[in-house]
Write a sequence for this structure.
């Protein structure tokens, strides 16, 4: 029997009395007064200036900002790739800032899924092997790795291409593989760094349709982008400028990527992503 991938699934046990006071949902991201300073010779660059942000389970958040705004620094903090100078970061109930290096690596493997602009697939491995790679570091047995990898590829519509190599696939297909790889450990949070930056317009919308479907079944996604038209598919947009959050707005009616694709003009030169 195929093992399903549960996104942000949490089982809660309790008594009848629990129904009187429903438990408050625990945020996936709780950042409080985060500061990041870098030394540049005799000067100090204030990359992040007392950032506070909360992201709840199941949100789809776009983070935007010009170069030098602190957006990329913030992404590194959320991905546990760097440490803040001061402040607090709680990821799915775990205070991150006090963890040791090996503990951070373990946390990244269990709670985070990464999607990159450049795909970052290994050419010597086939698609299934690339998707299974995060589980290798977690010492998960091979049969379970294969089962989960196939389920993840099916979720992005690439079950029939699992034995192809990345060079045999289009850019859109390679990004789908990267998404499947991000899903395979059922992370609490998916971080997407410019996931449509190397793709044409139609393929970009196809990738956003996949991310929207994943979000609809429970995935919490924070997407970093320079493109307002991509951010329009998200339900919330946070804008950075000069190391602070300039605006934080909810979008009650995000664009539907599936509808955009259904109405897309027929063109013979669009990159095939299916």
């Amino acid at each position: 029997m195929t093992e399903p991938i549960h996104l942000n699934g949490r089982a809660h046990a309790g008594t009848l009395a629990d129904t009187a006071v429903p438990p408050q949902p625990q945020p996936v991201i709780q950042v409080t007064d985060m500061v990041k300073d870098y030394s540049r010779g005799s000067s100090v660059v204030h990359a992040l200036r007392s950032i506070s942000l909360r992201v709840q389970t199941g949100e789809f958040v776009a983070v935007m900002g010009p170069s030098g705004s602190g957006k990329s620094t913030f992404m590194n903090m959320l991905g546990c790739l760097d440490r803040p100078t001061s402040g607090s970061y709680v990821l799915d109930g775990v205070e991150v800032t006090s963890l040791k290096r090996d503990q951070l690596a373990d946390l990244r493997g269990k709670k985070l899924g990464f999607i990159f602009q450049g795909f970052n697939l290994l050419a010597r491995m086939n698609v299934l092997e690339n998707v299974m790679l995060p589980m290798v570091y977690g010492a998960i047995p091979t049969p379970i790795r294969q089962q989960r990898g196939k389920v993840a590829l099916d979720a992005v519509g690439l079950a029939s291409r699992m034995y192809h190599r990345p060079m045999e696939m289009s850019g859109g297909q390679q990004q789908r593989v990267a998404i499947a790889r991000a899903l395979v450990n059922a992370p609490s949070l998916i971080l997407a760094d410019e996931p449509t930056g190397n793709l044409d317009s139609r393929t970009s919308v196809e990738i956003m349709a996949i991310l929207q479907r994943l979000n609809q079944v429970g995935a919490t996604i924070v997407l970093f982008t320079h493109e307002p038209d991509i951010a329009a598919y998200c339900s919330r947009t946070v804008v950075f400028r000069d190391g602070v959050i300039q605006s934080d707005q909810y979008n009650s009616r995000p664009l539907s990527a599936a509808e955009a694709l259904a109405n897309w003009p027929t063109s013979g030169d669009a990159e095939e992503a299916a």
Residues 9-19, 269-274 have pLDDT under 50 and may be disordered.
